[in-house]
What does this fold into?
Amino acid sequence: MTALIERLQEIVGSGGWTSDPQDLKPHLTEWRGVYEGRTPIMLKPRSTDEVVAIVDACAENNTPIVPQGGNTGMCGGAIPDESGKQVILNLSNLNRIRDVDAENFSMTVEAGCILAAAQEAATAAGRYLPLSLGAEGSCQIGGNIATNAGGINVGRYGTARSLVLGLEVVLADGTVMNSLRSLRKDTAGYDLKQLFIGSEGTLGIITAASLRLFPDPGEMATALVGIESAGAAVKLLGGLKTKLDDRIESFELVSRRVFNLVEKHIPNATIPFAEEYPWYVLIETATGGDPQILENALLQEAEHGRLLDALIAKNSTEAANLWRLRHSIAEAERQEGKALKHDISVPLSRMQEFLLKGDELLERLRPDARLIAFGHVGDGNLHYNVVLPRELAVEEWVAEGERITRALYDLVDSFNGSFSAEHGVGQSKRAYLASYRAGPELNLMRSLKNLLDPANILNPGKVI
It folds into this structure.
């Protein structure tokens, strides 16, 4: 392998690679610390041509490649295995914003571009990139697309898939598929870019993307609402949609227990109500020039008994503080301890029914488990996380985790839902994909993998 390493070093040049253990350390484990791997080298190419040369060299030597963006994933999808034979291809140096076409409402960015930087470039051009995640200050566009990221604005704008107009992808044989056409309508054959969105780097390495932009939504109104149940959130969303239509940018559901964790672990984080409520909804709407539009809509919903209390941010600072509560959930969870992470989706109309059956399931399986639930009501996505007692031995924790997760996913499947709504499959959910997508779906996925990557050098051990 020495000759290959020397060749790879020559391709990326000085400053484009590292084998230093300290430099590699943060790239060998996911941020939750669940998965850890080894690698002989991490490469940081500066151009698509360098990516092509790396893929060619690794293909000739049958050496696996693990594409990596900001490494903010939840399923171990960007972490090499423990063999020490997989090369990390880190795309952070491939980070240019190639073009912002304000009149076409589009932009073309490279895969390593930080999401927040892309958002800022769109804003500077008077446009809006609606993809928004808690990790937007460190996650990268390539990773967002490779996992089909969701976030807080999916209800109105859709997932990353809905925002991609075209892709530049390096295939396993070193071929570059360039479909960076910023078109809304194009029926010239198969829509090949869709193969790579959500494929987690197993079919090709995304190096650039053309993205759909939107008009700047202008002034926003933000409110935190206390409600009785998840079912009440669904009814509230229905009522507000009737009044506000597509002005609803975000509609986030959070349980009381989750916000209590945020108050416990995040400095200066406080729920701004004198009384606690079972559930909360964080709402953001475009005002359309009417600063009272959200307040008036909530007053009407209160008359129908669809909410218990509401607080509307008076300025941008108060709005930022409300969103800080929501964006701090992942960090608060991490500090609380290891939890079973379930990123699921069910039909919106059945969310309350699912939560009730989920409560019954957890009570039956493990009465001392604690549920931490929050999600994106507008798209039916729930982060249904279960905390087991701290005193459990590692072996028992793993066994109980598998038992509870399998039973929960069976429940999700009975609702015709999905065990993976927005975090992807990665390493952690491969077995579940084999169970819940078995048959023609999985067979076709495997056929595509074998066709595009017959030697299995692109992110092996992930997804399928």
The CA atoms of residues 371 and 386 lie 5 Å apart. DSSP finds 17 helices and 18 strands in the chain. The longest helix spans residues 394-414. The mean pLDDT is 94.
